[in-house]
Request: fold
Amino acid sequence: MKPITKSSKLASVCYDIRGPVLDKAREMEEEGQKIIKLNIGNIAAFGLEPPDEIVQDMIRNLPHAAGYTDSKGLFAPRKSVVHYSQEKHIAGVTVDDVYLGNGASELITMSLNALLDNGDEILVPAPDYPLWTASVSLSGGRPVHYLCDEGAGWLPDLDDIRKKITPNTKGIVVINPNNPTGALYPTELLQQIVEIARQHQLIVFADEIYDKTLYDGETHTSIASLADDVLFITFNGLSKNYRSCGYRAGWMIVSGDKRHARDYIEGLNMLSSMRLCSNTPGQLAIQTALGGYQSIKDLVAPSGRLCRQRDLAYNLLTQIPGVSVVKPKAALYMFPRLDPKLYPITDDQQFAYELLDEEKVLIVQGTGFNWIHPDHFRLVFLPNSDDLAEAIGRIDRFLAHYRKRHAV
Reply:
């Protein structure tokens, strides 16, 4: 029998969060070894549960959730997303502009499948949330990575964006608040990105899944609120702000200048119909979540668990020789840098593998987020303070041994 192999599209996808390191972690767990996981934002796994009113409403409605819904989703949760878009000052959104999905991830892939032909280009940040790079590639497009500047707090480099626009560029991805860096973009910078999109007739794909996970009194601006003459596709959901990753409840909003996007919107409608609908129980959580008590505010307040753990991780990491970190203003992650003079790493996946093997701490290497140098890694600060301190203590010990092994 002829061997069955991965498709060439799949083989070309840069999605290195999965691979030997994760395989090793699974093997160790099967052997009964306890690992401290700092690799993924699976919030409920760290004891941060969804609001009880969401859970209770889903339970109450579950007997009536066995049928298909409209392909775009139920009316009531879509209407609640319209109201949310109004709170975010995104103008002109109707129920027909809202698509519900099995998490924002499904909708990201759908939005690119409907747009891209072979050779089309999408500007994607570096570092990025790698689903974006993967989805562009799987849709037949070419991801072109624009740099975010660590020295400027991981803000997008506007000159680098301008340099990388070609006649094949169809859109630009803006991940704000940012995963993996925790950066939050100021309104003035977003306005400049809008102007670039306007000049080059680009679609702006706005990933705003962490828009309520903000620290130190910061506020979030939806980029789609800044213009009505550019086409915006905005993504959000319940996974992070409402600690409901497993419910797979997300939404996509089409706004701005839709006059020249009729074929594209028809493609979105076709793809939405092809998957029949997103899961109904997840849809039923959206209206309750958006209209209920916003408990995320308690978690990100100065005395809240997420803020305290962010501060702890930042303080402990920056005490390690040769480790620097831009303190996150938002989201759940840090993207520390390892000074190449002290840590001459050439293969950061191997670095992550050795850390796991020696100290039983699981992180993700920076190149897994399409960062260009093997000198960063991402960690989540979701574990409780004791586990977090233990994990970073182990990282400190591993790095001390690494410095000795590679001392000049």
Remarks:
- The longest helix spans residues 385-405.
- The two ends are 54 Å apart (CA to CA).
